[in-house]
From TrEMBL:
Keywords: Membrane, Transmembrane, Transmembrane helix. The chain crosses the membrane at residues 6-22, 42-62, 68-90. This is Uncharacterized protein.
Length: 92
């Protein structure tokens, strides 16, 4: 059961990275320069966090504490992305 939750988390981080990458020119109505600046930082970050979580999950198993590092990093990255997006959207 725990492994399924990790898999859902990994897929979710990769979906977020894909969404950011596919909408890199007009992310939520931002201009092209700001959108590219945000996506060049956050899309690879989400891919790396998902990949690191997957690698740690395969190396140590679902009941180890090592894959939790990926969960913690992803949990910290999502609010940072949200804060930057809200700041950029409402600072016009």
């Amino acid at each position: 059961m725990l492994s399924i939750l990790y898999d859902v988390y990994i897929i979710l981080t990769w979906v977020i990275a894909g969404y950011l990458w596919l909408n890199r020119n007009q992310l939520l109505g931002l201009d092209s320069a700001r959108s590219r600046q945000i996506t060049t930082i956050f899309a690879p970050s989400f891919l790396l966090i998902g990949g690191a979580t997957a690698a740690l999950l395969m190396a140590f198993g679902a009941h180890s504490l090592w894959p939790v590092l990926g969960l913690i990093l992803g949990t910290l990255l999502v609010p940072i992305l949200g804060f930057i997006l809200v700041n950029q959207l409402f600072n016009h």
